[in-house]
Specification:
By secondary structure, the chain is mainly α. It has one domain (15-58). The protein is 88% helix and 0% strand. It contains 3 helices and no strands. The protein is rod-shaped and about 80 Å long.
Amino acid sequence: MKGVKSFLGDEDGAVTVDWVVLTAGVVVFAVFVMPPIQSAIVDMAIYIGDTIGLYHQFLE
């Protein structure tokens, strides 16, 4: 029983577990957030390209 109490009271490795949980949270967040952001970035790039195409004579 003393070994179990010692094991449960030991905090070695707790920081590692925290980092693993935080990293997993960031990865999950990125998986769910990146598709809408990527879509918006592609749309903005197309808009910028179209705008430059309209005003290319002024840019020469």
